[in-house]
Specification:
CATH architecture of the largest domain: 7 Propeller
Shape: globular
Helix content: under 10%
CATH superfamily of the largest domain: YVTN repeat-like/Quinoprotein amine dehydrogenase
Radius of gyration: 25 Å
CATH topology of the largest domain: Methylamine Dehydrogenase, Chain H
Distance between the termini: 55 Å
Strand content: 35-45%
Largest sheet: 5 strands, antiparallel
CATH class of the largest domain: Mainly Beta
Length: 502
Amino acid sequence: MKRFLPATGSLMFLCVLIGAASGQLASTHWPMFSHDIQHTAVSAFNGPAVPGIFWSYRAGGTVFTGVTSSPTLGSDDKIYVGFLDNSMYCLTSTGSLVWSYLTGDSIFSSAALGTDGRIFVGSEDNSFYALTSVGALNWSYTTAEELRSSPVLSADGTIYFGSGDNKVYAATASGALHWSYTTGWFIDSSPAIAANGAIHIGSGDQNVYSLMPAGTLNWSYRTGSVIETSPSIAADGTIYTGAVDNAVYALTSIGSLNWSFATRDEIFSSPAVGTDGTIYIGSDDTNVYSFTPQGALRWTYTTGSWVEGNPVVGANGRIYVGSLDTNLYSLNGNGTLNWTFNTGAYIFGSAVVGPKERIFVGTTVEFGSEGCQLLSISKKQPLLNVILSNDTPAVGDFFTIDLNCAPVSGAFDAYGGVIMPNGQFESFVLGKPTQLVKGVKALATKEKGLRTPFSTRLFLTPITPGSAGVYTVIVALVPEGVKPTIPNAIPDYIDQEVVVVH
């Protein structure tokens, strides 16, 4: 039967482009559930090397005020996420509220972003909503039951989603019904679109359905139990999904079984498909599984509880997945542990890996409202911070480099430099003239025996880059009297930032 959250509780959401044709999917960093219309859940970015809390946002209310859906990332680093307090939220990249829109019930659906700035999302009040970029209602469409399915936007602007009333819906960009297709039971699954335009979706009636863009049945495949996961489609057209019968299924593009694998408990996690075709999925048997495209088990990683959110894959091949043991896991491509981050609450949903090494993921606690917040997980903040006024300047633009340093006992020497576009490291020592930028002197202070804390500008005048390329600014503190090199840096008192000059 359908999986529900506890009747009382509070939830937390943890953290780390809109243009042309109406209804089409925006080309942002993460515009919809599982990233793209095939639901590969592969990011163009990497998570943090060492995780830490970047910011938090607390929603109002006392019961179910958090999120179990996956957030989406907009054009100007805005974050869009539905909470179980019935509201859709738009937040800035620093965690401040831009706007919220109140629906009539909880939001389990993940939003999809259109190229025209609109936000599309379903609610348990039975309605599907199209909101403007400023949070106003554009239109809504009412079905006969609650909506937990996350929408997908096709290339021609059609919006597909499922409903608890057993139907798959196709709506136009203006909110008119294009067609609907009736299955045998509820649909929590989110549709994925294949290269030929076929829409693949799971149903509570145990079937995976393949529908043509006109709404006719292409094929269906019956599994052994209810399907609440969302299918993923590999580059070769293979469709992957899980079911409550404990099994992972790989189906061909014409609906025949390629292979299946039985885990030891029910599957509510949706699969991710890496760029090399590797499949990743979680199970309520507490494991994360990795398979080859041919169905061979590569590895398993055991967490402390159910794994119901789908794994996501970073640009470097690392896998990020949450568990109801309250931990977010970063796994290496070979299945070994990279790091864990304890959120202090259950993780039902899936993470999102965005730019600047930031991860966003939702959590829930069983009682009370202490967990009702949205957090951004980013790289652990070093005690010495390099701060750039502009990390993407054009040639001829100026930018500044500031330093913030937390207290450290004793005296130290400050050392740093820049990795130039040609790969050479050009060093400088604070307090001495530098050739990094001709005619600019470094901070006018003593080279040795500096005291913390301090907050200052690295160069007394703005820097104007003369040529395009990628520059990496590195600054470190070394103990006084020790050779000033990066390897001799005091732990946590080293930081770097990248400047991309165009």
